Task: inverse folding
């Protein structure tokens, strides 16, 4: 009896979480001329066709991917270097740096967004140069990704035995090579986690991009303008495509991690 | 190694100074100056005119946080009692909607709540009167709960699964009823998760501007909308906007300070991010 209650409750919560997404997906296949989002009038793929012919959406998608790749790569390199440095800092400087690092995570996104906007607008006013666009978006995205990279690399560094690096050097390995052969493999899982997080955060970000993009469109910004102006089932089609991509990625990642786990278990058995 | 590796963080230190510290100082500078750049208290003082907006934001954010806690705790508890494999699936299912852009998730609710939306069509189909739902405060709270409830469930779950089974068994051995075990053992031990969940829901909820814009119509102005209007909206006034942002930051710092009072500090960040 208790079990049934728990099951019903779980079901209801997941219904709440998934019903809106399901409705979005169903109505992306709706064959309607009026663009109605709530009256079903037959199956069609017309909104998908329209979506892939929409040059603005494709351009926004391209911008989003460029920004995500560049800022994930840059913040991973910069953040990993920073984490190594922070790890060997003394107490007080470490505390100061970590508190500032936490600031973008603790602060409401909108405050981070407007503060960066003030910075870029003031910089343009003072030094001239181009107005907000891809450049300011790169800087903003790298900034809000960095803390996540640092916080996923730092624990791995702490877990690592510091003697390993010195042992490698004692055995005649030059420092740079010792770093790449000993330290890097050891902290790699943290770096990969940081990279993935930075990439997904960047793709998904709306609030900070909204304040720092000028007239440049990213996908979330374009979606926002779609919901403000013309409302068309194209958004539903777009949501469905994005949802399918995310699902596929998650399945791949999970299958991989299950395999790894199985592999590890087998190794332990041997 | 030490001195070499400290140098590695130099580029980050420079980056951080330019893109985190300097922008924050700029917010402070703009908040205390007028358009010509001379010092003034006027911006901070005129924030007082918007106290109703602040109160509404805090109220709606608090309601959304309490509802998320009320709905999320039982689910986290149920999931934490499942076997390992089902737990993984459930956690995935909680996280999956978060991977969909939150504008799209909120948009989905727009289509459901509209006067001619799906819920109202369904009500009409079974002969019930239509209910006006969109552009109400309730719709805004619903949007907040929907978007942020995973941030409540995940830290709660991660704390609940870490509770030592033997502590619960000890309580049972000593004659505690299942109710007592839950209230006197499980709930206190899950407090770090409650605290990080509450912070992770309250902070974005109180500062949102999209949800109120999309689901609240024009009548449910929140702090976020006020800031947005000063920077990118019709009422362009970055000085006032900075002052509002500064006040918002202070409010959130105070709220987090209060929350941390409940935390005994031992398992700080025990819930934290799961991703």
Result:
């Amino acid at each position: 009896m208790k079990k049934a209650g728990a099951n019903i409750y779980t079901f209801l919560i997941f219904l709440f979480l998934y019903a809106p997404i399901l409705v979005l997906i169903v109505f992306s296949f709706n064959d309607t001329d009026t663009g109605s989002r709530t009256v079903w009038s037959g199956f069609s793929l017309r909104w998908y066709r329209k979506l892939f012919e929409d040059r603005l959406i494709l351009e926004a998608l391209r911008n989003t991917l460029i920004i995500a790749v560049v800022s994930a790569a840059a913040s991973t390199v910069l953040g990993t270097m920073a984490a190594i440095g922070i790890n060997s800092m003394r107490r007080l400087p470490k505390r100061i740096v970590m508190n500032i690092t936490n600031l973008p995570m603790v602060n409401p996104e909108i405050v981070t967004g407007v503060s960066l906007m003030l910075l870029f607008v003031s910089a343009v006013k003072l030094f001239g140069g181009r107005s907000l666009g891809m450049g300011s978006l790169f800087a903003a995205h790298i900034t809000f990704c960095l803390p996540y990279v640092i916080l996923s690399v730092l624990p791995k560094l702490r877990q690592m035995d510091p003697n390993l690096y010195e042992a490698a050097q004692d055995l005649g390995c030059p420092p740079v090579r010792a770093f790449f052969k000993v330290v890097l493999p050891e902290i790699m899982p943290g770096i990969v986690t940081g990279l993935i997080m930075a990439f997904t955060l960047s793709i998904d970000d709306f609030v900070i991009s909204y304040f720092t993009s000028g007239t440049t469109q990213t996908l979330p910004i374009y979606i926002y303008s779609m919901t403000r102006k013309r409302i068309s089932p194209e958004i539903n089609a777009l949501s469905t495509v994005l949802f399918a991509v995310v699902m596929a990625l998650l399945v791949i990642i999970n299958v991989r991690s299950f395999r790894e786990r199985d592999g590890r278990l087998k190794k332990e058995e041997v | 190694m030490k001195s070499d590796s400290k140098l590695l963080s130099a580029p980050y230190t420079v980056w951080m100074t330019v893109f985190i510290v300097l922008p924050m100082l700029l917010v402070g500078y703009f908040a205390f100056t007028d358009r010509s750049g001379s010092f003034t208290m006027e911006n901070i003082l005129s924030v007082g005119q918007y106290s109703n907006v602040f109160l509404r934001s805090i109220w709606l954010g608090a309601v959304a946080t309490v509802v998320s806690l009320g709905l999320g705790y039982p689910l986290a508890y149920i999931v934490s009692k499942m076997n390992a494999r089902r737990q993984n699936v459930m956690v995935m299912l909680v996280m999956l909607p978060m991977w969909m852009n939150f504008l799209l998730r909120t948009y989905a609710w727009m289509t459901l709540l509209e006067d001619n939306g799906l819920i109202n069509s369904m009500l009409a189909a079974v002969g019930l009167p239509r209910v006006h739902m969109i552009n109400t405060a309730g719709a805004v709270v619903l949007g907040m709960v929907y978007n942020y409830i995973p941030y409540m469930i995940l830290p709660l779950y991660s704390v609940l699964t870490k509770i030592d089974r033997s502590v619960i068994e000890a309580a049972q051995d000593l004659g505690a009823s299942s109710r007592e075990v839950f209230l006197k053992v499980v709930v206190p031990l899950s407090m770090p998760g409650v605290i990080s969940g509450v912070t992770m829901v309250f902070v974005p909820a109180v500062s949102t501007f999209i949800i109120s814009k999309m689901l609240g119509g024009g009548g449910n102005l929140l702090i976020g909308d006020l800031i947005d209007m000063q920077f990118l909206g019709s009422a362009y006034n970055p000085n006032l906007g900075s002052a509002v942002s500064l006040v918002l930051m202070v409010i959130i710092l105070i709220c987090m300070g209060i929350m941390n009072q409940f935390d005994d500090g031992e398992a700080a960040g025990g819930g934290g991010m799961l991703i």
